[in-house]
Amino acid sequence: MTAKPDSTHDAARRSWVASANTGATDFPIQNLPYGLFSESTGGERSIGVAIGDQVLNLRGVAEAGLLPEGCAAAARATLLDPLLALPGTELAALRERLVALLDAGAEERERLSPLLRAQNGVTMHRPTSVGNYSDFYAGIHHARAAGALLTPENPLPANYKWVPIGYHGRASSVQVSGAPVRRPLGQLPPAEVGGAPGYGPSGRLDLELEMGVVLGRGNARGEPVPVGQAAEHIAGFCLLNDWSSRDVQRWEMFPLGPFLSKSFATTVSPWVVTPEALAPFRVAAMARPEGDPAPLPYLLDAADQAAGGLDVRLSVLIRTARMRAAGEEPVVIITSNARHLYWTPAQMVTHHASNGCDLQPGDLLGTGTISGPTEAELSSLLELTVGGTRPATLPNGEVRRFLEDGDEIILRGRCERPGFAAIGFGECRGTILPAPGTAGEGARA
Amino acid sequence: MTAKPDSTHDAARRSWVASANTGATDFPIQNLPYGLFSESTGGERSIGVAIGDQVLNLRGVAEAGLLPEGCAAAARATLLDPLLALPGTELAALRERLVALLDAGAEERERLSPLLRAQNGVTMHRPTSVGNYSDFYAGIHHARAAGALLTPENPLPANYKWVPIGYHGRASSVQVSGAPVRRPLGQLPPAEVGGAPGYGPSGRLDLELEMGVVLGRGNARGEPVPVGQAAEHIAGFCLLNDWSSRDVQRWEMFPLGPFLSKSFATTVSPWVVTPEALAPFRVAAMARPEGDPAPLPYLLDAADQAAGGLDVRLSVLIRTARMRAAGEEPVVIITSNARHLYWTPAQMVTHHASNGCDLQPGDLLGTGTISGPTEAELSSLLELTVGGTRPATLPNGEVRRFLEDGDEIILRGRCERPGFAAIGFGECRGTILPAPGTAGEGARA
């Protein structure tokens, strides 16, 4: 069951952490996502809770004896997985306690203040261990737009409306926001059919706007997860940039799918936004157009259909090297919304475990690129520039078909609904470095 | 550089562990592979070395002060990864020391005897942590045979002779020999084009005969591995059964590749056979037929071409439930040889890291199904029965198109060369259990 809004969502509630009350950050007291941080000088990693522009050291809160007993041990861990794997009742109790502790009227203010650090003064780490990473293809507008570039007469695969299509990604490639992205070398498609491929820096480096689904409780090998229970396995959500090399991808992917075109880097935002925090922003699963088949029974749950979707406004910003040199701020190039996903996160979990695959705490699922139906919502450069044939012009006059060295890409996500405090996901950021062995002038297709 | 035969390969050498000298096991003193075991009563895991029908507790040897200093700490670990990540010089020194300690004339016999356990009296575990698992497609005869079933007019993908094709597998699915394999549920292809898919137990459950490449030293993110140095990253080899659900695969795999058709289980043999032990059995990389392109420069190394291949005789055996009930031994249904691989393990490593992907100690690569050019060497049932159209008859009269519940599949690998002691890989074994929620009568396509 997806959580319903409760007193922890009260829009009138304020925190004694002043920056949480301004609306200027993604992290009012109604959000409280979890992350993993260390002091910027180094030292042990701790679980942190984002509040305003601060991070609260959860280990410190546990050591002060202020957390519910059921989660105190996990709150002291140096990684997030055990906390996220706790039963939903424990996590709900933890959220309630944190709301009470951070409430403007809380008596614990004096004791907790020393446990705050400025977010811009700490080092954030990959939030979970990501033992396994799988990427779905649940953005139907992306699948259709990408398919149209390859097989215009039949853009959507025949299985699309039945199968939550996915593939296994490279777990070691998953890195936290801020880590740079080195342009990959790779085999590049032959100039003519039957010719020899090239080898060198990818000339068609792309971004993909996705959300990440972070798994909490796992399932035992051989034991599928009923769709009605799938939400209990989801610990939270983040933003995810599935960096892609389109030239490498086109040449390598037949017949076994994307490999090196994806595994050079995948960036996630540092905060795991909980299902509890997102409760007010759940929406019906994407309405299936007339004539679309109903999900097969193993993927169909009334509660999930009614409230399994996510209303998250997503955006992609770019800041080029020239913009950075000129002191200019990043500009938005794409906006979309997670409600455009054809499959719900619960359906992804259930499908993934349907063959008995054991999902594990801290595993990561990507949703697939979340394009919308309009041109402004095409959520990769492949789509936006129609395979590079219609270059995009930035406000400063620079032109992009694909990413250039020095380009910085930032994903943002924000939930807004009248009567509720707006919450957000923080940033998912990465800057392109030149390929190994190149002088830094980049590569152009 | 691939190791060359040295005194540790002396075929005349005998061990004070009598069973190592009979030729009846895979583990003479010239082999000495590493594994991870615990007492069958439970307790901590230890690294073990296979010798004859025994396993030597390497932690005990380290605690007795008998190992070279450089590897003593890693030898005491409760997982194999740190040991395998040691520099090649340390691993070579460890091998030499173990050969000396187990030699028939060794003075340490009395001290070491208490550290032996019968292999059939201990529990073997997955040898490494397998943080990441990737599966290649380097068996060209398999690629051609499998392709012929789908696109008879063009069986081999256009990129095949250029790209060491691979895809990311599911790390959590990798299990050690002996663990059962539950038949997966899944979406099954529609009976007619445009129809609805089915859902239920896979009716086309298959095996795939592969070898596993176990990684030792990793590479930093963004730093490719030159092919001339790739061998330094390979810690050893094992057998690998890439269980596959052909009906699920056919329906799900376009356009992003195999997913749930593979991730329900992947079985590996428990012993990591070292490159040092395999030195006498290295052969030239597969001779490329007239007209085949040379490997691109980043994949081409003279030493690797001369001795990067593996001469390992492989076999697949089956024992059905009826055979087991009748007390019958498993029978061989497939034989092949790892020298049929189109790409060398070094080429797989270099290609995998060419985009900057960080390979990590304990990672696992599958080679892909190693079919040979003859009918007896077709190394999956898909090929052997021509997609299920030509059922195979077992000696007891049973017929198989694909695997039935209760079928036990065993992979074996053996290296033989005149003048050298034969070495082997142990067994890679798994038995099919009925799908969840079925009474055990199995599923037939």
TrEMBL record, chains A, B:
Keywords of this entry: Calcium, Hydrolase, Magnesium, Metal-binding, Phenylalanine catabolism, Tyrosine catabolism
Record domain Fumarylacetoacetase-like C-terminal: where: 135-432
Pathways per UniProt: Amino-acid degradation; L-phenylalanine degradation; acetoacetate and fumarate from L-phenylalanine: step 6/6
Annotated Pfam families: FAA_hydrolase (PF01557), FAA_hydrolase_N (PF09298)
Keyword Calcium: yes
A single MF term (Gene Ontology): fumarylacetoacetase activity
Enzyme Commission number(s) of this protein: 3.7.1.2
Cofactors demanded by this protein: Mg(2+); Ca(2+)
Keyword Calcium in record: yes
InterPro entries: Fumarylacetoacetase, Fumarylacetoacetase-like_C, Fumarylacetoacetase_C_sf, Fumarylacetoacetase_N, Fumarylacetoacetase_N_sf
EC class name: hydrolase
Annotated ranges, domain Fumarylacetoacetase N-terminal: 30-127
Source domain of life: Bacteria
Cleavable signal peptide: none
Gene3D superfamilies listed in its UniProt record: Fumarylacetoacetase, N-terminal domain (2.30.30.230), Fumarylacetoacetase-like, C-terminal domain (3.90.850.10)
NCBIfam families for this protein: fum_ac_acetase
Name under which the protein is recorded: fumarylacetoacetase
Gene label: fahA
